[in-house]
Write a structure and sequence with these properties.
This protein is mainly alpha-helical and 150 residues long. Among the domains are: 38 residues; 41 residues. 44% of the residues lie in helices and 0% in strands. It has 4 helices and no strands.
């Protein structure tokens, strides 16, 4: 019998003492604070008149048109990124008529010499081994047996 102090015991006590570094909390606080401060400075630069900025001692700053251009460029960059990823995913998707649209290299098919796992039934509480369902079986279940046109 394995004791509770053995490493293979499911109830063994973890070697972790519960103390963890608080560095991520500090980094998160600094990131949140600096981002908020940068946003407030950006908004003040965008809306304050030139006289008030000079009164505060700020004599050089970018042209005010950048207050509109930066957010507009940022929005367009985000939209372009979404469009690019969507286009790449669409370009790499196989056509519906392509065989790899319903069977690929990752398919887990049943062995061809074994009996069909879809037709055999085990006991009442038996869970069958998971397999990918072949497209022929899917079509037969969904649409019934083939009907030939005369």
């Amino acid at each position: 019998m394995v004791g509770q102090t053995q490493p293979t015991s499911p109830v063994s006590i973890s070697g972790h003492d519960g103390h963890r570094s608080r560095a991520p909390e500090f980094y998160g606080f600094v990131a949140w604070t600096s981002t908020s401060l940068a946003f407030v400075i950006f908004v003040l630069w965008a809306i304050l008149p030139d006289e008030q900025l000079r009164y505060l001692g700020i004599t050089w700053y970018p042209n005010r048109e950048w207050a509109v251009l930066l957010p507009a460029y940022s929005v367009m960059l985000v939209l372009l990124t979404y469009f690019t990823y969507f286009s790449l995913a669409l370009a790499q998707t196989p056509a519906f008529s392509d065989v790899c649209a319903f069977a690929d290299t990752q398919a887990h098919l049943a062995a061809s010499n074994a009996s069909s796992p879809y037709l055999q039934h085990g006991g009442i509480n038996t869970v069958p081994e998971p397999h990918d369902v072949p497209i022929g079986v899917v079509n037969q279940v969904l649409y019934g047996p083939k009907k030939y046109r005369e």
